[in-house]
Amino acid sequence: MTLRPVIAAPFLVLLLALPLTACSTEDEMRAVDPAAAGEPLTGTPSPDAPTPVPEGRVRTNGLVTVLDPGTGPQMCLGAVAESYPPQCGGPAIEGFEWGEVGFEEAAGVKWGSYALTGTFDGTTFTATDAIPAALYDTMAEPQEEPLGAACETPATTDTAKATPEDMDATLAAASALPGYATAWLTGNTINVAVTEDAAGAESTLRATWGGPLCVTTVERTDADLNAINQELQAALPTLLTSGSFAPDTLDAQVVFDDGSIQEWVDATYGEGLVRVSSALTPTD
């Protein structure tokens, strides 16, 4: 599956996600340094897209990077460039204290990972609580369910033709299939989704892969989702990241959604196509 760069809000940095390869981890697929993108991000946010602001206290959805380049602490809700010191941007934070643990400092920049609670007025986050990563229980966070196999009993035809090199060749062949939508791995099972001729696709892939294989049909191709994703990136003013991590689905994270952004994307792109999540969530 191919993931595309996002349009970021003014205080956010850009993200480019990697296409799926046989040797990529899920984290590698989700985020890399945007400098390699090579594609200019343009577009005008839709005047109809809502930009809700939370009324009460909110907390970050897990740990976020807090960075002070010398002008005051900022909360980085988008991607963080993997430089030293790191680079990122976000809304200014008031009421934040670094404390004695949880941060690094280099070249006049101070940064660390924190779980924050406070209020957000659309521009500034006022912190009432800050837990450094060293004291934060990541096990308490909800864990995302991995994408399962596309069939109940993946068939194996030739165990000798199931090497890592065979897997790489098969994933490359999958991306060239007519109606290609996406591909993913569950253990050593290759899962491929196409919009047409699943039997023909399986026959083609068996030329290079004898291990467990599942081929299924879906509604939208990879190109279809990419086109919709580009529209989405330009439309949502508070979009942080977006991409396709499952067949026939786009995932979009925004700064905050009270339900109105989800309603808007459902009305604009069709119910169930875009799943909206928030970087900031109400505490109650």
Automatic annotation (TrEMBL):
Keyword Signal on entry: yes
Residue ranges of the region described as Disordered: 36-57
Top-level division of the source organism's lineage: Bacteria
Keyword field contains Signal: yes
Signal peptide residue numbers: 1-22
Alphabetically ordered keywords of this record: Signal
Protein name: Uncharacterized protein
Species this protein is from: Nocardioides astragali
